[in-house]
Amino acid sequence: MSQHLSPEQTIGAPQDWHFESLLRLADTSLILGHRLSEWTGKAPTLEEELAMANVALDLVGQSRALYTRAGEIEGKGRTEDQLAYLRDTHDFRNLLIVEKENGDYAVTIARQVLYSAFAMPFYEALTGSADDVLAGIAAKAVKEYTYHLRHGSEWLVRFGDGTEESHERAQDALDTLWMYTGEMFEMDAVDQAALATGVGVDRAALKSQWDATINEVLAMATLKRPADGWMISGSRTGTHTEHLGHILAQMQFLQRAYPGQSW
Question: 103-106 long-range CB contacts below 8 Å, 24 or more apart?
């Protein structure tokens, strides 16, 4: 196992922070896509199973494009499969909120709304990236996140403004996930380097737009916005919840059991 280094210790040549910033996006899309795929065969209705599967496919497609670009920037010949399947838990940089267990459907939907409300303006801003390839990936992602947010918001309103039980479950989901939302807007040395060169986005500047979106959805859902307080983070330094190891054990099994195989 390699010794873990923080972004401040690894940042150096432009390809270092560029690669790192791409991994953060790719890992987040991949892990959330995997989580949502776990609803296949278990979603509340057949139509919703298909809808959630399509959202998962969108996210996995994003991750593939981002990993491919990351491999090009790194310049070491690593493919999308190698970046997805041959890194350990401490090497992943996904946001912690996306690795949380699905829970009941209210938890999954609340997570989807909280993240999509950030991802949509983030990728919209990223369409102006100095990295033309990344800008192209972002342009496609904006369309996908627009649907993801609308789909999730409709379900959250249905839960919040539904029965007493559905309202309670939706509120509990929001209260549980809220402490993971602050990490989306953090800016460290890698983010600052990407922003300074026009490759990245000022995450902190997106907070007001996210607040407005979330407040509007919660008002329609008759749900209370949880109080802001202590926020958990750690993904940028490879510190994750206990859930990520279980995800990777499932997701990476075939590649690690049969190295180099493709189909």
Answer: 103/173, 104/169, 104/173, 105/43, 105/44, 105/155, 105/159, 106/159, 106/166, 106/169, 106/170, 106/172, 106/173
Output the DSSP codes for 56-70.
HHHHHHHHHHHHHHH
CB 210 within 8 A of CB 37: no
What's the CA gap between 195 and 204, in Å, rounded? 11
pLDDT in tens, 30-59: 999 999 999 999 988 898 999 999 999 999
Residue 97 contacts by C-beta under 8 Å, 6 or more apart in sequence?
Answer: 111, 114, 115, 177, 180, 181, 183, 184
- HSE-CB of 123 using CA atoms within 13 angstroms: 26
Quick one: tokens of 162? 């539904």
Distance CA 182, CA 12 (A): 27
Q: pTM surpassing 0.85?
A: yes
- Is there a contact between 154 and 147 (Cβ–Cβ < 8 Å)? no
* Rounded Cα distance, 112 and 143, in Å: 15
DSSP letter string over 58-122? HHHHHHHHHHHHHHHHHTS---HHHHHHS--GGG----GGGGS---SHHHHHHHHHHHHHHHHHH
